[in-house]
Amino acid sequence: MSEAIGASGLDILINNTTHLPPGPLELLPLEEVRQGFEANVFGGLAVINAFLPALRMAHGRIVQISSWTADTPRHFDGVSGASQAAMEAFSAAYRAELKPFGIDVIVASMSDLEAAGSRATAALAQIDHSMTAAQRKLYGKRLRVCMEKLAGSAAQGEPTTVAARVVELSIQRHVPPRSSIDRDAEHMMRAIREQTDAELDALRIQLAGPN
What we know:
It is a single chain. With 211 residues, this protein is of the alpha/beta class. Helices cover 61% and strands 10% of the residues.
């Protein structure tokens, strides 16, 4: 890796996370949650630490891709939200620790891509089919409402468009510690800043649908 980068170091590291399997937290096997954190959190830390020597040489920048759900986790999407929140916390710590070396760390929040929404709908459908009668009584209606909303919602961006926006953000000279990649993410981040915790909880309950 050091031979491929060369003596000039690395200018930009874009560190992305994967969308973890959704579902009611009560019904998710803990081993799946552990595996998700292993990939999103510990894997993310391993990538950053591996490239720090090269970033230090070039006084480079780390761009941590995240989601607005790190601040306001959605129902049935708690594992992804929690893992992204963990990476945002680590990013803030890295920002303070690496500033003396001239390394910048920013968080770029985005909304769902079409592929991620399709995978989430398929995963929720699988959970819906495998639930017991008792579990269906607890979560069935809200799970189906969630699937319908995911299927009917418009994804915010083509992957190529989002990638271009990430690159554009990455090479800007002065970038805030936290930025939004698309309009939906920008709208949600603004709403999160302006609403109280009680208002955000009420919104989550409303989005969850009927019991």
